[in-house]
Amino acid sequence: MNRNQRWIILAAMTLVFAAGCGGTKVLKEPQPMITTQPLAAASDQRVIATLDWVIVRDGPGTWAKNADWDEYLLRISNPSDQPIQVTSMTVIDSLNTRVEPQPGRKQLVKGSKQSARRYKKSGIKVKAGRGAGTMLVAGAAVTAVGYGAAAVSVVGAGYGTAAGGAGAAAGGLLLLGPALAVGGIVRGVRNSAVNNQIEQRQKILPLEVPASGEIALDVFFPLAPSPGAVELAYSDTSGEHIIVIDTSAALNGLHIDAQHE
Length: 261
What we know:
globular, 261 residues, alpha+beta, 6 helices
C-alpha cells in the first residue's frame, strides 16, 4: 500500500467516524433533571396555565444530543365544572415573530434554520442552548453532572478486514463510496429514532381538559430566541379565549449568542 492509498483509507474511515459521532441522536438515558418551581404561569377566570420547563439543546432533561429545537413542558388546569378544549399553542420570540409547533424532526430543524436566518438579518447570532442559565435559576433546576451516550462501533466493525487486505490496497479509491454510504445509513437510522421519540412525546392539539382536571402538554417548537410569551388558545361553552404566559424574565437571552446578551 503506498502513501496516497493510506491517506485515502484514513480519509474514508474519518468520514464514517464523523458520521457516527456528529448530528442528533437519542441518548441511552435522558439527562436527569429536577425542578423545584415552574418557570412561569398565567391564569384567568377559567384556566391556569403553567410552564414547568423548556428542554433545550444538551440542557437539563434532554434525551437527544445536539437537538436543534425546543421542547415546552406545560400543565393546563381547569378548575371549572365544565370541560374546556386547548386548541393551539404559539411561542412569540424576541423579534415578535409567532413560532408555531412542528410535528417532526425535519420540520423542526428547518424552522430553526429559518429563525437563525431571520435573526442574522437583525445582526443577532443564534446559538442553540446558549443563555439557558436564566432558566436554570428561574426553575431552580438541579441536574446530575454528566450523562452517558451510546458508543458507535462503525469503524471497528466496518474496517477491521477491509483495510488490512490486499484488495483494500488495490482498490483504495473505491472506499470513499462505501464510507459515505455507511455514514448516510448511520445518520438515517439516528434521525429516524429521534423523529420517533418526538412523535411519541408530542401532544397534538386540540386536547380536552376535563372539568376540575389537569393535563400535561409536551410540545416541540423550532428555536424561538429569548421568547417573550407563550400563547394558548382554548374554547369552552362561552366561546374562544386566549391566555398568555409571560416568559420574558425566565427565558431572557435563550439561544442568543453571548455577545448579544
